[in-house]
Write a structure and sequence with these properties.
Layout lengths: L1 H19 L6 H29 L4 H8 L3 H5 L4 H21 L5 H82 L12 E4 L8 H11 L12 E4 L14 E4 L2
Antiparallel strand pairs: 1-2, 2-3
Helix pairs in contact: 1-2, 2-5, 3-6
Length: 258
């Protein structure tokens, strides 16, 4: 409540001077200005008193000019309502000082100037602090964005690595299946010509590894023996249907080998 006491003391001193000192030629004009200023001062004091009783705080704007610790707290308020309230109070004090300057003494005006200078210095410090705070917040946001980008890049790299590994495994599986398929096809081909499917079962040794054309050619050159075990061939059994890519089926009928 220091500012209220100062305003009341200032008003009382001005009233005493006007009552004790003789008025000059221009004193009536000053007197009328003073009479107009007094109600404004009283209204401002009452308004500040009501506000202090309601909120339990003093006029921190004026205290900041004396002590340098109130304006920064007000300027850092996060509520827009509080900010607007502080600005309104600053404008009220400025208007009050501006209207009362014609009635102030040299010492009082110098005190107001010093208080204003200290206030501007405090505002400059608050602006510097706000600039540093905003810069730190922006830097923090940039760091958070960089962290998110790094996590995304890491996730993308892991995904690409897993994708590449899956492609390699699938390629190896395809190659293995292709190799097995080729082996099965080779198993179904005649061991002599490697072109035609196996379609003839030899009796009684039961070898099923040749086609009929190769067996007939073998008989004409090497006699009536099995190309595998060299046993005599007593008969042939032709398969009903064979394909190069399918395993041999059960022989359908036995034919004499003559």
């Amino acid at each position: 409540m220091k500012n209220l006491v100062r305003l009341k003391v200032l008003r009382d001193n001005m009233r005493k001077r006007t009552q004790c000192e003789p008025l000059a030629v221009s004193r009536p004009r000053h007197r009328r200005a003073y009479d107009r200023l007094c109600p404004m001062q009283d209204a401002s004091i009452e308004e500040h008193g009501v506000f202090n009783e309601k909120h339990g705080t003093g006029d921190r704007l004026t205290e900041a000019a004396d002590h340098g610790d109130g304006v920064t707290g007000d300027l850092r308020m996060t509520s827009d309502g509080k900010r607007a309230e502080v600005i309104q109070r600053m404008a009220s004090v400025q208007r009050l000082v501006r209207e009362g300057m014609p009635l102030m003494t040299y010492e009082e005006l110098r005190g107001v100037r010093n208080a204003t200078k200290a206030l501007f210095e405090e505002i400059d410090m608050a602006m510097d602090n706000a600039r540093e705070t905003e810069a730190a917040a922006a830097e923090h946001r940039l760091e958070e964005q960089d962290t998110k980008i790094r996590w995304l890049e890491l996730g993308h790299a892991i995904f690409e690595e897993q994708k590449e590994g899956m492609e390699k495994r699938h390629s190896a599986e395809r190659q293995e299946l292709q190799r097995q398929l080729e082996e099965e096809r080779e198993k179904a081909l005649c061991l002599v010509c490697l072109e035609r499917p196996r379609n003839t079962l030899l009796l009684p040794c039961l070898h099923f590894q040749y086609c009929l054309d190769c067996l007939l050619q073998h008989r004409s050159c090497n006699g009536n023996t099995c190309p595998t075990c060299r046993r005599s061939i007593e008969g042939l059994c032709m398969a009903s249907s064979l394909a190069a890519s399918s395993p041999p089926t059960t022989p359908r009928a036995q034919q004499p080998y003559v």
